[in-house]
Amino acid sequence: MPKDRPNVIIICSDTYRPDHIAANGHPWIKTPELDEFVEKTINFEGGTVSSFPTIPMRTDWLAGRFSHPRHGWRDLDPKAITMPQILSKEGYTTQLIADTTHLLRSKFWQAYDHFHFERGHEGDRPFSRLNTPIEDTVTDRRKTRIDRGNHGDRPAIVDVHKHTNFRQHYEEECHVARLSDVACRWVEDNHKGGPFFLWVDSFDVHEPWTPPEYIVRKYDPSYDGEPMMHPNYDSSDIYSPEELKNLHAHYAGECTMASKHIGRVLRIIEDTRLMENTIVLFTSDHGMYVGERGRTGKSAITPDAFDVFPFYREIANICWSMHVPQSLANGVLPPGTRMPQIAQAPDVLPTVLELCGIEQPKESDIEGISLVPWITGQRSDQTREIAITTWTAMTHHSRKTTKCRRPTVTDGTWTLLIKEPPDEGPPELYNVADDPNQTTDLISEHKDEAKRLHTLMLDWLESHEAGSSALERLSAPNVGLTSCCTPTIPRI
Fold it and tell me: Does position 95 have pLDDT exceeding 50, yes or no?
């Protein structure tokens, strides 16, 4: 094995919207540490969710394959050939550091040589506290997430989170701060060795949002009501304007705090001179609504229902800032370059392997496309024509199904949103090159573009083993395309 193979560090911040980094244009949020990293790296602004949400996206990253045509949320397949396993066979030491409890439950740690988990995020309860009752954080349960089937007999997630983390008082006790402490110590203990592969998985900025109050006050200094620490995963109409502003302030506070503490990890990577021979990627798995389009959260979750919100940009866009040392490739693009073309989670694995000088295992069935030609400014004929964002779970993750739900398909210029129950109505079409915020539906004026994207989507799904029932459900008549577009020949 060549001794000069690069190290690989991937830092994932769950639910971090790229538009909530100041360097990406947010008008009032403060994220100086991530701003600095963005300005020093290559940024793939076409980074798009592939298989939604948490575990399907991480499956796509690790295996270099698309989950959503084949299955939904499930444990990591023990037969999968993953990025850490491939690198381990090539002599890399592989390490997972995470507080995303889903990775523990879904056995993602099994793919790594070493793993460490910080417990207690969201509804995770590593210890019981029977002597102390769980108190309500928000008295109006319509203003926080109440899971399906919970009609008042069980506490809400935000209540469980505060009860579990009752000792949290100082900023250093917050989850992202604790996780970053561990990651920094690991870098100090390992920076002279290598090659290594480190995955740092921060569940922040996923809710509940519990940054110190002084950070929230940066964005909402005069609010005096109950803290809006967790979106209700439903209509935002239930909130007053002041409450909705406070909800957004809590999310913004999490982004600021994540920037600060992830920034400490990035700083120690730089101080130990690892940047000279280390690929460093900062990314996220999806976004969420904080009042946009009349919604909060990323899914529709109520005591009586569990469904999917449409995949507008607030959910579908992901962070993708990548440091590639100049020594690894001839003509790496200059720091701060912004790349518009589409990139999705399965593309990370082939990109890393090519930069590390490792051939793709023939038995791995990798479906991602290496971004190295783009990183080096050469461009490539091997590019992604479209990106599909969807998930496969019909209701809850645990219900096994192979039905794609409410897919969004984009070619980087046009984006087509398919609607399915409970949201009725025709699909929507946006020219995201001219209208990145997706404010003007142009499907009536550009029927042929909608038809073209829909046909490409069905072709792609069929070639990636989507079931016949999914293809039939998504056929033109069933998604309302025939009423707004020129007729298409049914595929099924």
Answer: yes
- Write the pLDDT tens digit of every residue in 160-203: 999 999 888 899 999 999 999 999 999 999 999 989 999 999 99
Instruction: Using pLDDT thresholds of 50, 70 and 90, give the confidence band for residue 402.
Output: low
Contact residues for 477 (Cβ-Cβ < 8 A; gap 6+): 490
Q: Which of 49, 485, 36 is nearest to 275 (CA)?
A: 36
How do residues 176-187 score in pLDDT, each as one tens digit?
A: 999 999 999 999
d(CA 463, CA 138) in angstroms, rounded, equals 47
| Residue 235, both tokens | 């209509």
Q: At what angle do helices 241-271 and 32-40 cross, to 10 degrees?
A: 50
Q: Which domains can be identified in the chain, with CATH numbers? A: 7-375 (3.40.720.10), 387-473 (3.30.1120.10)
Is residue 35 over pLDDT 60?
A: yes
Which residues fall within 8 angstroms of residue 313, CB to CB, at 6 or more apart?
19, 287, 432, 436, 437, 438
